[in-house]
Amino acid sequence: MTDDMVALPGGGFWMGSDFYPEEGPIHEEWVKPFELDRFAVTNASFAEFVAATGYLTVAERELDPALFPGAEMPSLEPGALVFVPTPGPVDLRDWRQWWRWVPGADWRHPSGPGSSIEGLDGHPVVQVAFEDASAYADWAGKRLPSEVEWEYAARGGLDQAMFSWGDEPNDGMRANSWQGCFPYLNTGAGSGGWVGTAPVGSFPPNGFGLHEMTGNTWEWTSTYWTDRLQDPTVTCMCSPDSSRARSIAPGGAVARRVLKGGSHLCAPEYCLRYRPAARSAQTEDSSTTHLGFRCAR
Fold it and tell me: What region holds the Sulfatase-modifying factor enzyme-like domain (predicted)?
């Protein structure tokens, strides 16, 4: 486990944007000083955690059929979601065209049986659910950042800029995002021409010295999902815990958390979310080939 963390001074900043509806309203937030990992947690660090604790990730556990009534799944074997490029152009409104449930996919085998992380020690760990990320953070004496902390850190002091480096579009050298035509042609990003994840530290740091805060992998936060940002300056005549409202999946089983940062699968024509303000909802039990995390303290 590495302990390369950046001390952030905290303070006020303008959070949110009007790019996508769920990113507003734009409002002022205040953050106390905290530390954040300079890089996303890597395969090597996660392997150290598993070796020390014997931890079994969510994607490696047997599925309970009672939790998936009527589910159309090839099997109830342990597994996870894997991105599979399409042969050519498809309807971008249907994500099922490029995502597959793959039995046997997990953090050691991100794309399923036959794949591995051999030679990828420095790449961010993926196929980790919220519980997995939280367990690692506890073991490391850290925690997951909140959405507010994460966005403050990702902006790197550039208040209200579109990207973590400013307002200029990504040329493939600023962040690991999809280069080409989604979801079938990716020419690769960065000096390594990365298709998929890139090793941490492959792209320039932001103003706070943090690497890959946007692009490469989405990252878990501790914040429960709401369809709009909660402006702390607005009085809400609802429950006292409305700012942390739990969004429950059908059946009332699984809460959703906020993901931040976008990933190597983000493309302007489909998902321009490699931006500090971008956010996405994910059920806590989800594991995918483009989802990782970093820790705060």
Answer: 2-297
Q: How large a percentage of the chain has pLDDT more than 90?
A: 85
Strand 218-224 with 291-292, pairing: parallel
Chain segment 81-105, per-residue pLDDT in tens: 999 999 999 999 999 999 999 999 9
CA 264 to chain centre: 11
Token digits of residue 2: 């590495």
Name all domains of the chain by residue range, CATH numbers in brackets. Answer: 1-61+74-297 (3.90.1580.10)
CA-based torsion, 107, 152, 266, 247: positive or negative: positive
Per-residue 3-state assignment (H helix, E strand, C coil) for the chain: CCCCEEEECCEEEEECCCCCHHHCCCEEEEECCEEEECCCCEHHHHHHHHHHHCCCCHHHCCCCHHHCCCCCCCCCCCEEEEECCCCCCCCCCCHHHCEEEEECCCCCCCCCCCCCCCCCCCCECCCCCHHHHHHHHHHCCCECCCHHHHHHHHHCCCCCCCECCECCCCCCCCCCCCCEECCCEECCECCCCECCCCCCCCCCCCCCCCCCCCCCCEEEEEEECCCCCCCCCCCCCCCCCHHHCCCECCCCCCEEEEEECCCCCCCCCCCCCCCCCCEEEEECCCCECCEECCCEC
Instruction: Find the mean pLDDT for residues 134-156.
Output: 98
